[in-house]
Amino acid sequence: MRYEFIVKDAVESDVVVQLPGLRSTQYPTGGTSLFGPLQDESEVQTLLARLGDLGLSVVEWRLLPD
User: Which of 3, 23, 56, 60 lies in disulfide reach of 7, CB 3.0 to 4.6 Å?
Assistant: First the structure.
């Protein structure tokens, strides 16, 4: 399953490197879109915690269509 996480601010490339398997792009209304495959809800929760540990504020997340 692929997920997208929208974070409030710009995410530097050195931070994205710490999130293996995710790609990033500037979000149209500001902030950053981080997206990529995750296996299950457990991985989603782990990633949400990791993003918080990195000081990133997640404003929205969603499952992407295949």
Answer: 56
